[in-house]
Amino acid sequence: MTEAYAPNKRMKKVHLSDKARAALILKWVFLGGMIVFTLYPVIYTVLGSFKTNAELTQGGGFFPSVWHFENYYKAFIQADFTKYTLNSVVVSVSVTILAVATTSLAGFAMARKDFAGKKILLALYMSMMFVSLGSVTLYPIYELLRALKINKTMFALVIALTGGQATNVFLVMGFTKGIPRELDEAAIIDGCSIYGVYSRIILPLSKPILAVVALFSFRNAWNDYITSLIMTISIPKLQTLTVAVVQLKYSVNSAAEWHIMLAGASIAIIPILIVYMFSNKQFIAGLTAGAVKG
């Protein structure tokens, strides 16, 4: 009886092992396909930036036949991408700082304070997360900035890009709710005001989620095209790198210079990739904590 049962048991184990192996292979095939689809455009852009214009338009090989590093020199010097890169850095860093400051304050108030109209405000924030107005809001925003007579400054672009932080506010609010209120009470007993509780207790403990907010804000500001185009359409010297790369396609002298465009696109892609490579662990940790707490 035991001998007859043993082979069946072994066969069952082998069968389960085959299913597990098939599932593992399927998982890696899926992940490999996702990696290829994600990285291929980036790799093609970077490699294409070292090709000649003729090689790009005539459909040469995947790798450059000759590596033309001078494409980057032409992009920086002839197309003046140095100025546009500096504009992007200034705008993105400013938006990041302003977004972290405003979302941390808003999230703290939403999580810790009860005030008139809080539920209505939360409902409005929630609606902004699921209803994307997109470019519909650009005209009234531009008109408001024009009425304030700041529409022709870089500050106007920073203000416009800092808006729409509903998702980040909810992330910070959820994280703050996970911080014990006993810490607030102990700080108040020790003589801290509400601002002291925010700056000395909540802010230091919220660093993981604020890192996520900073990364989201920097990425959105760096990659933005429509808002930056609208805000700088009459002031070319304030254009960001993303706008400058696309505008290069429509300029009279550079309409067909795809190699310069790809060099500019690579300049725009590489910084955000470097930022993510060095901060991806903090990004995942902070995002997970913000999603679970509260």
From TrEMBL:
<dbReference type="Pfam" id="PF00528">
    <property type="entry name" value="BPD_transp_1"/>
</dbReference>
<feature type="transmembrane region" description="Helical">
    <location>
        <begin position="197"/>
        <end position="219"/>
    </location>
</feature>
<feature type="transmembrane region" description="Helical">
    <location>
        <begin position="120"/>
        <end position="142"/>
    </location>
</feature>
<feature type="transmembrane region" description="Helical">
    <location>
        <begin position="21"/>
        <end position="43"/>
    </location>
</feature>
<feature type="domain" description="ABC transmembrane type-1">
    <location>
        <begin position="85"/>
        <end position="279"/>
    </location>
</feature>
<feature type="transmembrane region" description="Helical">
    <location>
        <begin position="225"/>
        <end position="246"/>
    </location>
</feature>
<keyword id="KW-0762">Sugar transport</keyword>
<dbReference type="GO" id="GO:0005886">
    <property type="term" value="C:plasma membrane"/>
</dbReference>
<feature type="transmembrane region" description="Helical">
    <location>
        <begin position="89"/>
        <end position="108"/>
    </location>
</feature>
<dbReference type="GO" id="GO:0055085">
    <property type="term" value="P:transmembrane transport"/>
</dbReference>
<keyword id="KW-0472">Membrane</keyword>
<protein>
    <submittedName>
        <fullName>Multiple sugar transport system permease protein/raffinose/stachyose/melibiose transport system permease protein</fullName>
    </submittedName>
</protein>
<feature type="transmembrane region" description="Helical">
    <location>
        <begin position="258"/>
        <end position="278"/>
    </location>
</feature>
<keyword id="KW-0812">Transmembrane</keyword>
<feature type="transmembrane region" description="Helical">
    <location>
        <begin position="154"/>
        <end position="176"/>
    </location>
</feature>
<dbReference type="InterPro" id="IPR035906">
    <property type="entry name" value="MetI-like_sf"/>
</dbReference>
<keyword id="KW-1133">Transmembrane helix</keyword>
<dbReference type="InterPro" id="IPR000515">
    <property type="entry name" value="MetI-like"/>
</dbReference>
<comment type="similarity">
    <text>Belongs to the binding-protein-dependent transport system permease family.</text>
</comment>
<keyword id="KW-1003">Cell membrane</keyword>
<keyword id="KW-0813">Transport</keyword>
